[in-house]
Amino acid sequence: MDQLRITGGNRLDGAVPISGAKNAALPQIAAALLSPEALELTNLPRVSDVENMLRIIALYGAEVSRDSHRTRIDASAVTPGEVDYDTVRRMRASILVLAPLLGRFGQARVSLPGGCAIGARPVDMHLKALSALGADVSIEGGYIVASAGSGLTGGRIVLPGPSVGATETALMAACCARGETEILNAAREPEVVDLIACLSAMGAVIDGAGTHRLLIAGNTFWRAASHHSIPDRVEAGTYAAAAAITGGRLELVGARMEHLASVFQVLEEMGVSIWPGDRGVVVNGAQRLKPADITTEPYPGFPTDLQAQFMAMAALADGASLIRETIFENRFMHVPELGRLGADITLNGPVALVRGRPALKGAPVMATDLRASVCLVLAGLAAEGETVINRVYHLDRGYEQLDRKLAQCGAKIERISR
């Protein structure tokens, strides 16, 4: 199992290319199952979650071809078969194949998914969205079994919360339903807007992208399409935090400021300078970070996927910060590992009080999930001495060549294969 060895103290300086968004790529790959016509996707990141999703749709019969620039998916021979749990257990996003298979074939049997252990993340909202369109849904022996013998019928779906995954499931199912569907309390994340753009290129008629109310015409006439995925705002935010925590300067090539308004607002409160550049966004760190209070919220609020990275920054701030996690109940599992590096963090339910210290000291640490992994990388970049991070396969799920990108900007970091 690979490790990362980091010797902290180097100031980062350079340009970092921001890869395509993993969380946009996964539903777009699933959407290819909706249509017998080919879908070409560009700007997909080379991360293990994307590779696993491509593997899953191939097991359903999709033909996948990939080179350095594009991924072509031909789902004309897909059948609504069954993929075993061992294949889908690695990530929760595997549930996204449920709606396309049900909508296209009138039936689907999909294993309950796995993923990071950061909270319950129930699939109830996905299943209720399908039921609202006339599907019969049950859970049998660890599998979701859904059927709509006469096809799905358009209707009104009211989500109890703006869940990204449930919105994506509802969108894909509604594209196949007879008649118009209204989705209320829909998620507004850029990844949802990008899925709508992809579905529209494939032939769907959808109004309201970027709002809480979506209207889908249904009865989609599918056509061959191509789509270029958006850059990864979480990756961009992570490298912005890397510049800040090391007092460095990074150009985030391809990053979009409009996707990171809440993140950049907090960074500026912490003393970091940010401005648009010719190729993206430039981030310049401060000599000593200021504290800041953060509450994770659905978009356009502060993203839960950047909470751990900002906790690493807060551990070195000149004062105390309060971080409130409102999305996932178990997303503080990185706190004990930050404590091994000397961070002073007190937990009280969903709230973390982080008392900044002048320095952290390197130590062996263990990654527990994707974002916790990169939080430890950031802390290691700023810590005195050597930090060794174990179980870095979590990092490979969502960050393309993280260690190489950091090394090119001056980090002393190496991957060790064991």
UniProtKB/TrEMBL annotation:
- Tell me the GO molecular function terms: UDP-N-acetylglucosamine 1-carboxyvinyltransferase activity
Q: Which UniProt keywords apply?
A: Cell cycle, Cell division, Cell shape, Cell wall biogenesis/degradation, Cytoplasm, Peptidoglycan synthesis, Pyruvate, Transferase
Q: Name one GO cellular component term.
A: cytoplasm
Task: List the InterPro entries hit by this protein, alphabetically.
Answer: Enolpyruvate_Tfrase_dom (IPR001986), Enolpyruvate_Tfrase_sf (IPR036968), MurA_subfamily (IPR050068), RNA3'P_cycl/enolpyr_Trfase_a/b (IPR013792), UDP_GlcNAc_COvinyl_MurA (IPR005750)
> Which pathway is this protein engaged in?
Cell wall biogenesis; peptidoglycan biosynthesis
Question: Where does the chain bind UDP-N-acetyl-alpha-D-glucosamine?
Answer: R92, D305, I327
Enzyme Commission identifier(s): 2.5.1.7
Q: Give me the reactions it catalyses.
A: phosphoenolpyruvate + UDP-N-acetyl-alpha-D-glucosamine = UDP-N-acetyl-3-O-(1-carboxyvinyl)-alpha-D-glucosamine + phosphate
Alphabetized Gene3D superfamilies for the sequence: Enolpyruvate transferase domain
SUPFAM superfamilies tied to this protein: EPT/RTPC-like (SSF55205)
At the top of the EC hierarchy, this enzyme's class is transferase
Q: What residues bind phosphoenolpyruvate, as annotated?
A: K22, N23
Tell me the compartments it is located in.
Cytoplasm
Superkingdom, taxonomy of origin: Bacteria
Q: Where is the Enolpyruvate transferase domain?
A: 7-406
Which GO biological process annotations does it have? cell division; cell wall organization; peptidoglycan biosynthetic process; regulation of cell shape; UDP-N-acetylgalactosamine biosynthetic process
Tell me which residues bear 2-(S-cysteinyl)pyruvic acid O-phosphothioketal: C116
The record's active-site residues are: C116 (proton donor)
- State the similarity comment: Belongs to the EPSP synthase family. MurA subfamily.
HAMAP family this protein is in?
A: MurA
Its biological purpose: Cell wall formation. Adds enolpyruvyl to UDP-N-acetylglucosamine.
Q: What is this protein called?
A: UDP-N-acetylglucosamine 1-carboxyvinyltransferase
> Which species is this UniProt entry from?
Rhizobium straminoryzae
Q: What gene is behind this protein?
A: murA
